[in-house]
Specification:
This is D,D-heptose 1,7-bisphosphate phosphatase. By secondary structure, the protein is an alpha/beta fold. The chain has helices at 15-24, 60-70, 89-99, 123-129, 145-151, 164-174, 197-200, 204-215, 219-223, 230-242, 248-267, 274-283, 287-301, 342-351, 363-366, 372-386, 411-420, 434-443, 457-462, 470-479; strands at residues 4-10, 32-37, 51-54, 75-79, 104-112, 140-144, 178-187, 314-317, 355-361, 391-395, 427-431, 446-449. Strand 8 (314-317), helix 14 and strand 9 (355-361) form a beta-alpha-beta unit.
Length: 485
């Protein structure tokens, strides 16, 4: 039997309700639907009939990773929250999945963008209509879980819904998998946007810079992305900059010619209404400068980038139940007892050049059962026994205080990563319960669960990676280091 689940990243747009209603009408329901709330600080939780996960505003790539890693099905169907589904979508999807051979990692659905009747498309409508020809777009793309695990999912360095799906497809095919087009289809309406949308989307040039840093100057060919207009934007900016550099007349003529041509190319196929003409005239002179600015920022930010996942640089341990035996609300350093494998595990990771830290919930402080000084004393004793850690992050709050640091929230992991100067994607968390794993996932870090007697079965089943003991967990970590694979 083919098993499949649905993952939908969202920022809480009203269109999500329509999509979930479409899913509820399907004749062949999925095993699970995961809605991943990617709002940074939602005022209130999503009220939907689905499993809701929180990814903390890290972008759709990170949200999709959280979703598929939370599922347990053979296939994961990714949908954007602004698409609509025909009533036959699930039947067609299952047929697509059943027709896929064992070397097929993913099957894409066709994207239909509704066109207005009786008039040409606006610039923004043409941009959206381009999705109909996009390859491997996650507006409707089903991936085999095995393939996602092999490549570690989406590259979370892509912060917006742009290029992250093409880059994933590139890595999947690079591992010898095939991708196919299915028979199913979805409808992708043109969402309303403001006057300056064409300028705002130029932020995607920073993502192009990431692809170039990883795959070189021919990245478009490898990723099957159509040629862009960046060279012309760069020429326009250089022409403008040459004006104050002493080439006033020549630079001005070149800039005027390039800008006029750009306006013409954008207006010619469009409806030429007053609003569209004004939009093209006002945005076209600005757009090249914004595009070049974002490309320059992206080039600097992503210099030296390597393919996903980036190499590990830090490991964070849970304290009680992972490094030391769990003594409830312990405030006595003399009661600290290391697990037998803890010292060797820490030493091996430290010798490998990794930064190390501890992230621990200590609700006894918030409950009035311990003082912060007592907890600090216990932590100092652990430092004495295992060598000093590079960072200690302690949540002192009781569970009902609603803080952002208590695991399974991301706060402790993010704070540790910030103190170490390491991006969360290059951090791994080792813990003994599901809250440790969930905190890592929420922060965009990796994780290894080392179960013990208090670890619930469902936590073990949900963990992306488990190890029977600390020694094995360390072996997993060391295998991820450059030169050890």
């Amino acid at each position: 039997m083919t098993t499949w689940s649905v993952v939908i990243p969202t920022v809480g747009r009203p269109c999500l309700t329509d999509l979930l209603a479409d899913l509820s009408r399907q004749a062949w329901p999925p095993q699970a639907v995961y809605v991943v709330d990617d709002r940074r600080r939602p005022a209130e939780p999503l009220q939907v009939e689905a499993s809701v996960l929180r990814s903390g505003g890290r972008g759709p790539a990170a949200a999709r990773n959280l979703g598929w890693r939370s599922s347990a099905t053979e296939w994961i169907a990714f949908l954007d929250d602004d698409v609509r589904l025909p009533d036959t979508w699930s039947d067609d999807l299952v047929r697509d999945l059943q027709a896929a051979d064992e070397l097929t990692a993913g099957v894409q659905g066709s994207i239909v963008v509704p066109k207005p009747a009786g008039r040409p498309l606006t610039d923004w409508e043409r941009s959206t209509a381009g999705l109909e020809n996009a390859k491997w777009a996650t507006a409707d793309m089903a991936y085999r879980r095995e393939a996602l695990e092999e490549v570690d999912g989406f590259d979370e360095r892509f912060p917006r819904a742009y290029r992250e799906d093409a880059e994933l497809a590139l890595r999947v095919r690079g591992r010898g998998w095939k991708l196919a087009r299915g028979r199913r289809s979805i409808i992708h309406p043109v969402r309303p946007e403001n006057f300056w949308v064409s300028v705002r989307v130029q932020r995607g040039n920073a993502d192009d810079a990431l692809l170039r840093a990883i795959y070189g100057r021919h990245w478009r060919r490898y990723a099957e992305c159509p040629p862009g207009r960046f060279k012309w934007h760069l020429a326009t900016v250089l022409a403008a900059l040459s004006i104050p550099a002493g080439f006033r007349r020549l630079g001005a003529l070149a800039w005027l010619a390039l800008t006029t041509d750009f306006i013409r190319r954008r207006l010619e196929p469009g409806p030429r209404t007053v609003n569209e003409i004004a939009r093209m005239i006002l945005t076209s002179p600005v757009l090249p400068f914004v595009a070049v600015w974002h490309r320059a920022k992206g080039t600097w930010r992503h210099r030296g980038s390597t393919p996903w996942p980036p190499p590990l640089r830090a490991v964070l341990f849970d304290r009680d139940g992972t490094l030391v035996r769990d003594v409830p609300y312990n405030g006595d350093p003399d009661r600290v007892e290391l697990f037998p494998q803890a010292r060797q595990a820490v030493e091996r990771l430290r010798t490998a050049g990794l930064q190390l830290g501890v992230v621990t919930n200590q609700s006894g402080i918030g409950r009035g059962l311990l003082t912060a000084e007592q907890v600090a004393g216990v932590n100092r004793r652990i430092d004495e026994l295992l060598g000093p850690f590079n960072t200690w992050q302690v949540c002192p709050h009781a569970p009902d205080e609603g803080c952002a640091c208590r695991k399974p929230a991301a706060g402790l992991v993010l704070a540790a990563a910030a103190e170490l100067g390491v991006p969360p994607g290059q951090v791994l968390v080792i813990g003994d319960i599901g809250a440790d794993v969930e905190a890592a996932q929420a922060a965009g870090a990796r994780s290894v669960l080392v179960p013990n007697r208090r670890t619930r079965t469902e936590e073990v089943l949900a963990a992306p990676m488990t190890a029977p003991d600390l020694t094995t967990a360390v072996e997993y970590v060391l295998a991820e280091l450059p030169g050890r694979r």
